[in-house]
Amino acid sequence: MDLNLLKTFDVVMNTLSVNEAAETLGVTAPAVSHTLNRLREQYQDPLFVRQGRGIAPTNFATELHAEIQEPLNRLLNGAKSRQAFDPRTSKRTFRISSHKDLDLMVVPPLIVYRDQHAPNVKFKADIEHLNEQDRQTDLRMRKVDLILATVPLEDHGYHNQLLFEQQLVVVCRKDHPRIKDSITQEQFFAEQHLLWQTQRMNKYIMDSLVKEKLPKRKEAYTTDSICNSIIMASQTDWLCVTSVWHAKMLSQMSPLNILPLPFESHPFPVYMTWHHSQQSDTGHQWLKTVFEQVTQNLTDLEL
Prior knowledge:
By secondary structure, this protein is an alpha/beta fold. It contains 11 helices and 12 strands. It has helices at 3-15, 18-25, 29-43, 59-82, 100-117, 132-140, 185-190, 205-209, 226-235, 244-251, 282-294; strands at residues 48-51, 54-57, 93-97, 122-127, 146-149, 158-166, 168-173, 192-196, 218-223, 239-243, 256-260, 268-275. β3 (93-97), α5 (100-117) and β4 (122-127) form a beta-alpha-beta unit. α1 (3-15) crosses α2 (18-25) and α1 (3-15) packs across α4 (59-82). It is elongated and about 75 Å long.
């Protein structure tokens, strides 16, 4: 069996598009079709059938892909993984998919570590996914090396590791007319709120983490940025629920009251996620270890 046949088959299975597979592989669409025809003859199965404007795998193709994916990745990446990654001399570029609020927490210490231990390595964190399918595809196709997010990917083939957790707190401006050095649950729900939403948990972060069903908050403004919420809270009478790290960081710039939630909540989690095809990549192993090191103090923050 020509290894390139299975490599092409793997890419077509991941993209479900002959044209996208051709673009990924750097060949023409007819070349991909020719390869699929050779595989059809080899296995005596159509492998893919038309579905709407795209294609869908046959049951045999799905079973075949499950059987070959791990050994194929090992074969394709074997030579690369055998070469020990040396951070002191490597010029590799790692791509991270994150969120601007998480970038504030992890990128500065990441760059400090890089400058000391891997001066020629580059990090790009310019990809922000808004839906699950794009995250999975980019990890699978190695367009990104790691994803940082609040919820793990549970699908087969992905690995998740809890990187750190953050306590949730309430933030309001220092001279708030009603909220001073403490807040009750009744006061909390009587005020207008800045709601911090996410694409990957329930609509609002706090609602995903509280331990009991609570009354609906009065919505003043909704944003997907923690930092926007905190800055607006410093300029209005609105309340904001946020992570303790962001509250402490921005309280250095604006006068804020940072108070514990008046009810129980789970901590706000951040996971790093990668595709199993990266498991034997020594450079990728180094990257995960670095993230563990530069974020180890983030969980320890207290109000």
